[in-house]
Every structure is written in C-alpha cells, then in structure tokens.
Amino acid sequence: MSVVSLRGVTKRYGDTRAVDDVSFDLHENRIHGLLGRNGAGKSTAMRMLTGQEVPTSGQVRVFGENPYENADVLSRVCFIKESQRYPDIFVARHALEAAAMVFPNWDQDFADRLVEEFRLPLKSRVRKLSRGQLSSVGVIIGLAARAPVTLFDEPYLGLDAVARQAFYDHLIADYAEHPRTIVLSTHLIDEVADIIEHVTVIDRGRIVMDDSSENLRSQAVTVSGPTKAVEQFSDGHEVLHREDLGGFTRVLVSGVPTGRDTASLQVEPVSLQQLVVRTTQFHDAALAGSGNGNGKGNGKGAWS
After folding, report:
1. 25: helix, strand or coil
2. How far apart are CA 35 and CA 276, in angstroms?
3. Which fold has domain 2-214?
4. CB of 249 within 8 A of CB of 228?
5. Concatenated DSSP letters for 184-196?
6. pTM for this predicted structure
7. Domain boundaries 219-290, CATH class
8. Which of 3-7, 66-70, 152-156, 227-231 has the lowest mean pLDDT?
C-alpha cells in the first residue's frame, strides 16, 4: 500500500525546475532509496512531501492527505536532514526532549542506548557540537522516533565510517522489529545498496529509475571480452556505458541478452552503484543530444 504519492509534481524557483513533472510512490513498511547526485532534486521532493514547501503544480499526498499545514499527517512523519537547525540555546538533550514530545512512538530507552553508543555529549550546546555530533543528534531522533514515515536526507554524512555502519546496523535491526516506511536519500549508493528495497533515482529533477532493487539488478549486466564478440552479444540492447582498450571492450548492457554465445566473454552482475551512475550519465547524454535540458546545469554534478 502506498503511504506517500507524488503525481505530476513540479517545483519551480524562478526559471529553474528543481523538480520536473515527478510521479512516484513510497510504500508502507519498506526501505526506499531516493538516490541521485547533489542538486538532482531529492531534497526538494522531500521538503514537499513533508509539507515544508508547496509544489508549483501537481499533487502530493501523505496518508491520503495534503501534508501542508496538516498537523495530523506531520505528527506521523519524521524528516531528518543534514542541515537540521536547532535553537541556539538548546543543548543536545533539549533536541531529544523536543522530539520525544512531538513523536507519539518515541522510545526513550532506545534513544538512551543510541546516545551512549554514539557518545553524544547531552549537556553541550548544539551550536558547539562537531559535525559528527550533530549528525548523531539527527540519526538518534530519526531512529528513536519510530515515525510511520521516516526520511533521512543524508544527515549521517558527518559520521565517520564506523559510526555510519552503526547507524545502518541499528536501522536494519529496529526496522525488523518495528516496520515502517523509511527513506534514505543519499549519493553514497554502495553503502546502502544492501539495505534499500526500492530505488527511485532523480536526475535534473526527473525520475530516471523507479523499481525494486532486485528487479533493477536483474535487468543489466557487464560484459567484457574481444570487441567483436561483445558487440555481437550486446547487439539490439541499450548500452549504458562502453570502454575500449585495444581489441577488448567492456560494456554495461541494459537488459540481459539470452541465447547468445558467451564462450569468449566475461558476463558479470552490475552493482547498484554502477547501474545508477551509468544510467544517469546515459540520461544526461540523451538530454544533451535532444536539447531538452531543464535548466539545472551541465550534468556534471558530484556523486561524492
């Protein structure tokens, strides 16, 4: 069942379309990946579905209702972002106490355990916390709130690799015991590839991929070998990326050709990271060739 839906949603800032005729669903009790490079439109989409911005056109529904200025809906949605702001007078403990008052499903024992594991100094003023400590505040709130819809807009980027892995481990374990709809918006695809169940990729404000992780992985392969054999194998299929070295070629093919000779070829599965990045680049090239860009830049946004 869909708990969040966007239908034909566009968001303009002046002449720029940050989100361009976007439609997708977030399903109940599933971990979604909202993926794309910096500036792709991910954060804009999340701000609209959490009622922080109003679309220029189109329809946003959360639990079947418009989230904008809707207290009942927003009490069931937890949105954690990297640039989260708190009052200057707050110490870290105040941020957690405020969250406990807002979210009905708040688990204080769980929050206390997370505070200890992430070594969060509860008596330190929020404005004096390091970036990593600020990230800890966000992920603790996002996990302990247990909101029916929980969105993480890259708040964990300030955590080091060990702390990020601890966050992922807690997320998976708590999701197993308390299923809910979770969205991880990130460009660190390799880190979340084994966590997310459904993938939505936004690029230049448009949806370029929207399917289950399992389906996406099964729809592409990497093929390498003698150039002629590779070209024969991939003939009639969409080649998302190609590399040539001497008489050898390596391609990423969308669709899995069947009944073809692979004796001289190496056929390998594609990582989610590779598939998303190469599909996005392919999409960029298609837009550049057609001249149908939407004013969001030259397609060279960073993935890291």
Report:
1. strand
2. 8
3. Rossmann fold (3.40.50)
4. no
5. EEES-HHHHTTT-
6. 0.88
7. alpha beta
8. 152-156
